Please model this.
Amino acid sequence: MIPYKPERILVQKESWQDTVTSEILGRLPDVEVRTVKDSEIRPMEPSAVSTVQSRNKNTLVLMRYPGSFLKRCQGSGADTCCNYYVVSCVWNCHLDCTYCVLQSYLSSRALIVCTNFEDLINEVRETLANSPKRIFRIGTGELADSLAQDPITGFSRRLVSFFAGLANGFLELKTKSDCIANLEGLDHRGHTIVSWSVNSKRICRTEEEKAPTLEKRLAAALQCQKWGYKLGFHFDPLIYYDGWERDYREAVKEIFHTLDPDRVVWVSLGALRFPPHLIDYVKERFPESKIPYGEFIPGHHGKLRYFRPIREEMYRNMISWILAEAPRVTVYLCMESFPVWKNSFGRESCSATFVRDQLDKAVCSR
Ligand code: SF4
Model:
């Protein structure tokens, strides 16, 4: 994997006071640095209108985020939601998967790192303390890959150590990278799940070109297993093409023949879905990609997705292949309706409460 190395760094004035800033600049000693005003920074926040497309990913922006870090996952609102939370302290990703929604969702192409990390920690600590009987599963992989930029940010070490001390909090670091060096030697106390977003080898090669191969992701997972971490996998997005059955079945086997199935707490499945305007970005940036040429219908949050019989066929097959290799693993669907859950799993008990309890149990018991 090509490590992220910016050509220039823009630092918001207030961010100079933060330890994160000095640590990051210390790791990038030969990169040009400039201080910028708030007015240059604000339009880059995720909520801003998409106007700052001129900056590219070679620009790293260090800024303080004044908003709330902890949010419900975007999947909330689907009939059967797994009740997941996200915290985002990095926005954007240099791995450039063709289907990545960040290219249409974020207002800036620059890679943005939030330097007021203490605010994030305080917010999570306070929220969890207010609901001590509830289990919180919290991930960092919503607006960036959790580990692809970690060699520069070093956030994983801080987060893993922080979550180790939370009785009711579990951290999920979701990645396609093999940047796991910072996870070595940490006293994680079973409160961190390192999970990989995986795909068939063909999709890894054609649509996730800059990310490590499936073999390399699994080698990194094996190392994390040796360090005692719980593991997770996300087949997301599942992509339908001629021969998908053979390729995905092979990927499932490769995962569970490489790793101890009992160390894997969960596997999620999510068929390809994206906002309609993403198609223009994909056609322009990745003319070779096959992503825009499937047949789609609008679904949850107006995103385009495959027709329901295709999704259910994919889920049914994947569930049976996964459970044949790892009967104790918890499998769940991402952003799907109750009828799709029911038809895919062949059972009635697919309520949001049931799914939440299954995942809470999985994360606490391994
Ligand atoms: S690894 Fe994830 S965040 Fe990064 S480009 Fe690919 S889909 Fe987007």
Summary: Residues 112 and 153 are 11 Å apart (CA to CA). The chain has one domain: 68-88+117-365. The mean pLDDT is 92.
